[in-house]
Amino acid sequence: MAERLIVVGGDAAGMAAASQARRRRNRDDLSIVAFERGHFTSYSACGIPYWISGVVPDRDQLIARDPVTFRESFDIDIRLRHEVTAIDLERREVIARDLAGGGEVREGFDTLMYAAGAVPVKPAWARTDAAGVFGVQTLDDGAALLDWLEREPRPRRAVVIGGGYIGVEMAEALIQRGLTVDLVEQADQPMSTVDGDMAELVADAMRGIGIHIRTGLTVTGLEERDGRITAVVTAEGPMPADVVVLGLGVRPNTALAESAGLPVGPTGGIRTDRRMRVPGVPGVWAAGDCVETLHRVSGMPVHIALGTHANKQGRVAGINIGGGYATFPGVIGTAVTKVCDLEVGRTGLRERDAETAGFEFVSVVAESTNRAGYYPGARKMAVKLIAERPSGRLLGAQIVGWSEAAKRIDTLAVALWNGMTVDAMTALDLGYAPPYAPVWDPVLIAARKAVDALAGAER
Amino acid sequence: MAERLIVVGGDAAGMAAASQARRRRNRDDLSIVAFERGHFTSYSACGIPYWISGVVPDRDQLIARDPVTFRESFDIDIRLRHEVTAIDLERREVIARDLAGGGEVREGFDTLMYAAGAVPVKPAWARTDAAGVFGVQTLDDGAALLDWLEREPRPRRAVVIGGGYIGVEMAEALIQRGLTVDLVEQADQPMSTVDGDMAELVADAMRGIGIHIRTGLTVTGLEERDGRITAVVTAEGPMPADVVVLGLGVRPNTALAESAGLPVGPTGGIRTDRRMRVPGVPGVWAAGDCVETLHRVSGMPVHIALGTHANKQGRVAGINIGGGYATFPGVIGTAVTKVCDLEVGRTGLRERDAETAGFEFVSVVAESTNRAGYYPGARKMAVKLIAERPSGRLLGAQIVGWSEAAKRIDTLAVALWNGMTVDAMTALDLGYAPPYAPVWDPVLIAARKAVDALAGAER
């Protein structure tokens, strides 16, 4: 009889694992059942802000692979609208509730892939039945928000709570739809994924498109009338709102895993080894937004919910479940986004992370351009480097620029990944042609400036 | 008395060296005299095609730093229109001819920086006094060509000889100016800096904008009438031409150096050590388009004339002359260009280079997109990887894509620089957001495909 793999969660990590396992083992060797509580498999949650803004017109464009593909091409028994409610490690079975048809199913497993994803952070004050309050984690969230935005009376005043990637992207999307937008952030800057000096460049761009930024402001409640949201209550008084978007981030979805006894680390994510096995629990694997992972620079566990990690981790788990060998070596915190035409990239540690991790360091910001200064379309770009002293090892990098900027963070990410020093980086052979870079690439200019700063710091 | 540094050649390498030396040593310690036979210092030869096309309207935009800056800010005695005609290592002096004023000057030196650049390859048949034949190496070349293009009777039929970067860029520039353009290439493909499969994508784009490509065709002469060029003679007959652009590449300008006894390597470039010293010749340094350098992947010397290398090498020499310590660790052959909107990047070895160097390898081409497939503006991108077998070490990479493609070669260049295997590359933490990449970045997709090819090759 075939071995049975059960996958809890049918999004990026779970389906990547299932597909990779299937590539290596056929149905006679491994049967695969995947439970997904939502309506969809493998969709791009990162694309939701662009769907809301109208840049991406159709929801289905966000769906990478539909269940039919998984069933027919991969021979995976994918069961949508089924929520796994219990995992019994002793009896090697899961219990799932059929959210559509009602009733429960029990399925035995030999191998379990836990990929339940993340759940939005939702403080007590945000728990309301009032209409007009939305998360933006799932396609269903997005559909509900779009419906609200298009229904009469049309909302005109939006408040976005939280100034991280999703908050900033949603604020831009709502501006593009013609709403007035306040963005409320508890910290002293939005986009706190980069340091304050770089975040200020982003905040300027946000203000430039009409987003009202309210930093250092704590939300304490929501006001409603006749079942509709009317205002966000803050320490400085109420802010009127016809629609409220919660962008407070996510946390690992581990309730079920913890009940079953799977180990959870200091970040709240499930612990795994390098092969994505759950340590001490034979035959159980975990991957994606529900796990914590190693930050390769700080050496500490982190929880970063991002599709690209989920896909990689799922692939690694699937290769291993399939009888192959693969490891996931951790992350370095690379991320990119944009606010209108302003592009933002980051990798590694911010200054505060470097301090927390105990590093001594210098940091520099080098101003340059994306193209040769004389080439049409040359726009400003700021590259920040954080380098350990006295070693000169790169610890982190940030880029903010107006065009062709964000993905240059990859160059720095690969340098960081390989433990390069800023001194060694000054010699890197990067592509040069006037439409693409000054003769000293912005990355090299920043590396040179960091070398000078290190020399100065040692004097 | 101050030590005397003489710089032969006042472009990128020479002036980078002079500036860096000056940063570390003041005029009382080091006097600096730089001889430049042309009219300009530190200009962007790479920008000439964009000046010819009109994209960059003004010649002076291509001049990075003028002589006044070097004299006043750096205290460098820069002498334009002075051609060094002899170097006497015994007597430690150079002789320079004043091309403008006439006469000769002799200057003694303690330290010599040889940075005489490159000279265009010009076969015997190309030596003509006929008007209408142009190189495009110097600003003077560019000015002469522009003058010819704008003078009556206006040229309408251009033939560009040579299908490398400069030939392809000049062909595009001339199309943009409204000329008909034939591009003649002796090899079986233009843009032979990438492999044939990738070059074919470039050739398609060139044909798409109306460039007539003639490959496998040898030029044997030029025809003229009344002192004007009328045709290019080839093995297949004459090709009518009102203007001929020679894009046959350059070779190191070493005549003077060789007369003085400086050692020249197998590529024809001057040999240097890692600090840019000329070995066996105390007090003499060399950098830029006149030297050969180490290719870090093949381990063999190469001659690559490119402003970015010249600047880096000059900087290294100048730091060392200034009493500091720096090394130039070699190159990996990274280059980028574009043909209209098609972007081309390359790094490391092509297939033929890998064969020449004796490597066994697999190569793969992965098709992907620059953005998430659903994000507006997503365009096709092909990433080629060449990986050693069985080790999996990356040996080379090429990218051809329609938008936001070329500079992604830097990601691969840094991976190659650090000796990464394609297997390790599949785990790289690269920036992901829908406007910038699919959830599997094109670089990662290619790495995965290379891993599969390696596994297949070992079966």
TrEMBL record, chains A, B:
This is NADPH-dependent 2,4-dienoyl-CoA reductase/sulfur reductase-like enzyme. Signal peptide: none annotated. Residues 4-306 form the FAD/NAD(P)-binding domain. Keywords: FAD, Flavoprotein, Oxidoreductase, Redox-active center. It comes from the Bacteria. SUPFAM superfamilies: FAD/NAD(P)-binding domain, FAD/NAD-linked reductases, dimerisation (C-terminal) domain. Residues 336-438 form the Pyridine nucleotide-disulphide oxidoreductase dimerisation domain. The lineage of its organism: Bacteria, Bacillati, Actinomycetota, Actinomycetes, Micromonosporales.
